[in-house]
């Protein structure tokens, strides 16, 4: 199996991220075998929870119909998202959250869901740059009302991530090829997936303005198109916080998040209290973030005597930094929030999204797995918000949910099923009423929202042109 060969190649090569973690991973595998011996393969039907106070949405009585009816969000989900009521059966050789999560990082996805993107660079008012990857490449020629899927990737992922491509390959294929015929744009964080760093600022779990400004641009470019939000891991946290901050003014008509980390402080503490959490997952995330900083060290430390330069040097000097160590030194300082946080714990408390669920005012679906080794705490009650649907599977790991495929030793994604059903339902069946977001205007070439003069964006050309969706920046782990 390619997965097994790839895992051991990485583990045994001293120069790689996992080179010094062989013993730790062997321990996890031994533990997994013990779990497997007691496993009975019982069906895993997701537990999907709704608030007791219903929310009503307007839907078409039939496809393409002009007749509209009002039904509860619960009734709509039960009829249009059938995957949430069918079992997830993991591949027999990926029988727990550890193996599912590891496969999401080390599995070979280069031959599936191949996508070509057209990249545009957005320059923000603070001088920063975002890489927006559009697909299909003829997206500007589609009908004005064609839905747009807006994707926020994980910690150091990007448009190349397999979990992103798994959804977009189907949803953005032409209808005659059994696709949805939608458009999509992946918002690559500053410095990720080849996006240049043009200011001494990165991104963080609480910085929502980069998403907000990207939505200004998309709304101005496609004013008739409904914008459907999808977020994974760290990107899920950013998406959730954006929806909560905007409330009824959200430019996104719906949101779907996968493996959102929710209570960052509590989940960090639980990671540090487990052997695999402290020595495998935390260090994998820390090393991947270190590689992002290393790739852009020249820009971030341009001035030799600044605090930024000292912090970059401190990060690069660490052999295998944990994620919370990188957060303490760097993300609290340049994660997009001013003034900087005093500690990583203060950053986690502020950035956590579980406490803002009650402020969301668009239909919102969250999917987590109970055996996710990174996200151990999930707010299953959805804060009692009728717009929020919380779904929890027993298995699936972190950005995993792999089922056995028809080919021996390979697996296919289960999670794309409910995500695609959600996107199709809100792209085709729901009637989106009223204006989304405050009015936009242009000031000195920057697209801004009326009443928000401090943020805005403008396109700065197509320098990147067309790029392959399977191209990954060296040293990054897309599974996190």
TrEMBL record:
Membrane-spanning residues: none
Pfam families reported for this sequence: Abhydrolase_1 (PF00561)
GO molecular function: acetylesterase activity; monoacylglycerol lipase activity
Stretches assigned to the AB hydrolase-1 domain: 147-375
Any one of the GO BP annotations: medium-chain fatty acid biosynthetic process
SUPFAM superfamilies: alpha/beta-Hydrolases (SSF53474)
Family: Belongs to the AB hydrolase superfamily. AB hydrolase 4 family.
UniProt name for this protein: AB hydrolase-1 domain-containing protein
Organism whose genome encodes this protein: Piloderma croceum (strain F 1598)
Lineage of the organism: Eukaryota, Fungi, Dikarya, Basidiomycota, Agaricomycotina
């Amino acid at each position: 199996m390619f997965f097994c060969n790839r895992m051991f190649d990485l583990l045994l090569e001293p120069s790689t991220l996992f080179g010094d973690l062989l013993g730790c991973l062997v321990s996890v595998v031994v533990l997994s075998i013990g779990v497997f011996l007691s496993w009975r393969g019982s069906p895993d039907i997701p537990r999907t929870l709704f608030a007791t106070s219903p929310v009503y949405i307007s839907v078409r009585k039939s496809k393409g119909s002009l007749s509209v009816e009002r039904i509860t969000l619960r009734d709509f989900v039960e009829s249009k998202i059938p995957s949430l009521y069918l079992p997830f059966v993991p591949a027999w050789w990926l029988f727990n959250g550890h193996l599912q999560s590891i496969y999401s990082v080390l599995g070979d996805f280069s031959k599936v869901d191949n996508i070509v993107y057209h990249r545009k660079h957005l320059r923000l008012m603070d001088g920063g740059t975002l890489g927006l990857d559009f697909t299909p490449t003829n997206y500007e020629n589609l009908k004005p009302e064609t839905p747009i899927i807006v994707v926020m990737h994980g910690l150091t992922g990007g448009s190349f991530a397999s979990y992103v491509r798994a959804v977009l390959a189907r949803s953005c294929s032409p209808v005659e090829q059994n696709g949805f015929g939608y458009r999509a744009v992946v918002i690559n964080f500053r410095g990720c997936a080849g996006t240049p760093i043009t200011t001494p600022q990165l991104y963080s779990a609480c910085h929502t303005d980069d998403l907000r400004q990207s939505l200004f641009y998309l709304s101005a470019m496609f004013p008739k198109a409904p914008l459907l939000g999808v977020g994974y891991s760290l990107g899920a946290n950013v998406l959730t916080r954006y929806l909560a901050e905007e409330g009824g003014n959200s430019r996104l008509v719906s949101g779907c998040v996968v493996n959102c980390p929710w209570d960052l402080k509590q989940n960090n503490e639980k990671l540090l209290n487990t052997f695999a959490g402290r020595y495998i997952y935390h260090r994998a995330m820390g090393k991947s973030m270190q590689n992002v900083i290393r790739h852009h060290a020249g820009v971030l430390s341009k001035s030799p005597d600044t605090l930024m330069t000292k912090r970059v040097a401190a990060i690069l000097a660490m052999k295998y930094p944990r994620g919370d160590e990188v957060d303490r030194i760097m993300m609290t300082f340049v994660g997009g929030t001013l003034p900087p946080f005093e500690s990583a714990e203060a950053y986690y408390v502020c950035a956590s999204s579980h406490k803002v669920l009650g402020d969301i005012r668009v239909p919102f679906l969250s999917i987590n797995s109970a055996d996710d080794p990174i996200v151990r705490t999930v707010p299953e009650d959805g804060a009692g918000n009728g717009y929020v649907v919380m779904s929890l599977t027993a298995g699936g790991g972190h950005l995993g949910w792999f089922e056995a495929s028809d080919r021996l030793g390979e697996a296919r994604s289960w999670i794309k099923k409910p995500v695609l059903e959600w996107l199709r339902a809100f792209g085709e069946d729901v009637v989106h009423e009223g204006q989304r977001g405050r009015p936009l205007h242009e000031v000195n070439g920057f697209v801004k929202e009326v009443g928000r003069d401090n943020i805005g964006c403008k396109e700065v050309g197509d320098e990147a042109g067309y790029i392959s969706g399977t191209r990954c920046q060296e040293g990054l782990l897309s599974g996190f």
